[in-house]
Amino acid sequence: MDAAWIALALSLKVAGWATAVNLVLGTAAGYGLARWRRLPGRELLDALLTLPMVLPPTVLGYYLLVLLGRRGPIGQWLDTNLGIQLIFTWQGAVIAAALVSFPLVMKSARAGFEGVDRQLEQAGRVLGLGPWALFFRVSLPLAGRSLLAGLLLAFARALGEFGATLMLAGSIPGQTQTLSIAIYEAVQAGQDETATFLVALTSLTCVAVLLAAGRLMPGRSRP
Amino acid sequence: MNAVMSTAVPASPLFFEVQIQQHLSSGRGSSFQLDLQFESQQARTVLYGPSGAGKSLTLQAIAGLSRPDQGRIRCRGQVLFDSVRGINLPAAQRRFGYLFQDYALFPHLDVRQNVAFGLRRGWLNPSRRTRDPRVEHWLQLFELDRVAGQRPEQISGGQRQRTALARALVGEPQALLLDEPFSALDPALRGRLREELDALLQRLQIPMLMITHDPEDLAFFGGLALQLRGGQLVGREAQS
Question: What angle, 0 to 180 degrees and rounded to 10, lies between the N-to-C axes of helices A140-159 and A90-114?
Fold first, then answer.
């Protein structure tokens, strides 16, 4: 059973890092889409950035392999210049999990920022705030609940990520074998008892995350 | 209090010098042309007109919240905007107190934090436990000390307006810009708050520019009355 806890710890680590990445990138993308109304092709960009949510994870995994693999344009550059290899590493698993869960953060961030009363931002400017202070003191706190709900959903999605992760990072116990991949391996190997335990563990973790997300969803009354 | 008064000494006999042109077009082919010029030697200027006359746009241009296509805006001799010289001071540096129509109080902050908002620079909001003598002064003056720990949604309309005024005044602005200051209030309260504001303006000696569609505001506050219609000035009347 030790292997199960190792897999759980790894899953939490990968999902946690993926969510941290999306906290920055997803929030920035959502803010940009909400604010740059004159950006040509804004809705097209939104659709493109949402693709990872609808594309089959294997397709995403394939794209990532092509880009980040040792012969891929990015992978080659990283290898020769920085000595970084992402394939078959937990960092690779983070990239895969971050990519599939990115749209959830971006969408809820955009909705959150679009819901912020423009007059409040104008009030902040008149009161002497520069653009960054305005973002952290007015826009972000007011969009915060929506953003937080999106982050929790993204965390849950990253926790359950399978296809893209398997293709990019493989299934190395203790390194890239996350819960969902461990379940697959256990079933393949006929270890029913292990599989059942892992499935129960995964289900409980996801229910906990979703309950937390539900409490933060916009539209609920706050105490 | 003294500090507030000292800023009110005019650096120029003209409080506002405004000459702006702005063209707005909506997607449906309709367009609006704002083209006006005025100077005000009086401490009180009321820009009066029906909705859609361009009052809000003018006020926003003065505050730096919108950028006119062409023109010049000066306040007490200081150039805030000059399209020819390429000057456009950001709203954050114009040092106006701005009272928004529905006050635009920050819903995630309590009354005290709202008032203290502009005094604190940087990326963090003032804490709930913050006690700044300037903030406490205004809270007391406006009888807001008892609701200082409450959120804007929990206080009355009159208290909301006073909170917004305190927030605008605590930074010792060079002038007060008022956007339909009484339209969000019920009529009974309106009269009382007009008198409060009038007394306050007299005491602080701070110039103000108000936009309103309410003829009663015009009659009550006097000063220079400018009538705006369809983006142009159609009347000018100075009262003492």
Answer: 140
